[in-house]
Amino acid sequence: MHRYLHEVLKTSNMLSMIGFVDPAVIGALGCGDVSQRSRVLATRFSSAHPDQIFLIPYNSGNHWMLTIVNVDKETIYFMDPLNRIIIDEEWKQVVNTAIKVLNVKRNRKGRKTPQWIILMGTPKQPTNTECGYFVMRYMKEIIEDKNLEFASKWSKTNDCTYTQNQIDEVRSEWADYVMTNYV
In CATH, what number is assigned to the domain containing residue 41? Predict the structure, then answer.
């Protein structure tokens, strides 16, 4: 999905606005301890353009969530398709440490603790099986909004969800991209 979204960003001339982090190198399972994952993330953040945000799909072991990081502002937005308000403490430590490591490398003071904002208005998944597609849909909508107003769009609690057609659209786009580029 990242490659597909990267192509969308390229076509829209938004590559300097949004970057991605491969979830396979920072995930909770098989990617090392907090320190190792933080260093990988800090290295990825070091290539950031001013005010660029990074979209980071994250799997805690059995559930996909989306973390959006603005490294310069040291602000992290958290989107959970289950609309939970508790952030995995280990994941929070990985991201916070990555920002601190980057600040040290840049010889920058930075905040004492990065600011985490939970976006409670994100569309909620109706069952326990579609979290990955919901995270892909969140990323798609963020990228399609050239003003990057995701924080205000999803800041307030609501009871919205995606329709089956909206989820199927993401599935179809992803499948078309894979079939066109890898088969």
Answer: 3.40.395.10
